[in-house]
Amino acid sequence: MARVFVAVPISSELQKEILGWEGGFQKLPVRWLSGKNLHITLVPPWEERDPNEVARLLENLRGTLPQFSFLLEHVAYGPNSREPRLIWAEGKSPQSIIELKTAIEECLALPIDEKPFRLHLTLARFRPETFSSFPIKKLDERVMWEEYVTSFVLVESHLSPQGADYEVLYEVKL
After folding, report:
1. Motif HXTX 1: which residue numbers (predicted)?
2. Which of the residues 42, 72, 119, 120 is marked catalytic?
């Protein structure tokens, strides 16, 4: 069984911009995601017997949806400020990303997620119990990180004690 999910990959240009921003926060005791692991999750992880079959199904979406862009405008602790466990960047969800997510869920015959999609990019992870030792308790950074989306990817998550590492299994161009 493979643990897979569907995501929007982050371009190398935006990866560099993000890694440059992170340089100012290296004193925080967190596990920063490497550039290649940065992504926007569209369909959360599930256990899959046949990732090749998932890739074959996703191929049906090639060229059927428009390319689009999104803007990440704010970096904060998440997913909620009372019990943070992430550093993430957030932005308004363009209709195009919601339509892409819905098309993927329908293509894979997955249950449609009824919760509103929250555009976010995880930058770092940490254990909630370590937050009390952080030198910065409030993180409220304005950013202007724009990404132009030309594809989405099927990703396998490899879990280890050092954290997850992600391997792109298949890419579908919009």
Report:
1. 39-42
2. 120
